Amino acid sequence: MHHQCAMRNSFKKTMFGARSSLRVFISSTIYSHHSRKICSFSQDHDPGSWESMEGLLRCPANFVPLSPISFLERAAKVCRDRTSLVYGSLEYNWGETHQRCLKLASAITHLGISRGDVVATLSPNVPAMYELHFAVPMAGAILCTLNSRLDAAIVSVLLEHSQAKVLFVDYQLLEIARGALDLLGKKARELPILVLIADNDCTSHIDITSVSYEYESYWLMGIMVLT
């Protein structure tokens, strides 16, 4: 009899952003559908112990391709009320993260982004960047994360090469993004839509006249998905 397996969280990964600590909680203990613990992974796990599985017929119980989308869907079901992200005073559980990413994916498609299109980001490790790693593939698009240490000239080259249709930019890097778009404009190329990732405590003095959308307002364009 094949047992249906599910993944649960047993390790914690910490990511550090430029402004504040971003902590992400991820998981991996395997349980059967009878809630009986079968096995758990550790960092010193020997990959050779899986050799005994060679020759088995692949099925959902023993072989499931990993993807950000399936991981988030599983986490939202199995660990819905468990913490998924902490950033300063901001905290989300997996259910909230799943809903936010679904709405963000919906908002991305409303801009005409379709399968195979490129969405670029110029941002440190902030919650918006975290959500985009799930939402962009949900929309069928390709995520192009630009190094936040690059100057405007290099960013413009990468935007042109990737043919990005949307650029999400952190407010700290807005001037670099504007410089890159100015350089692109001189080449008579269609410019990507600019979405600003703002910080309510630090963005009141920033000129946003060249910005198409602000992240939280843009996020609200998405359709709420009920689960």
UniProtKB/TrEMBL annotation:
Keywords: ATP-binding, Ligase, Nucleotide-binding. GO terms for molecular function: ATP binding; ligase activity. One of its GO terms (cellular component) is cytosol. Coiled coil: none annotated. It is found in: Cytoplasm, Cytosol. Residues 72-200 form the AMP-dependent synthetase/ligase domain. Belongs to the ATP-dependent AMP-binding enzyme family. This is AMP-dependent synthetase/ligase domain-containing protein. It comes from Glycine max (Soybean).
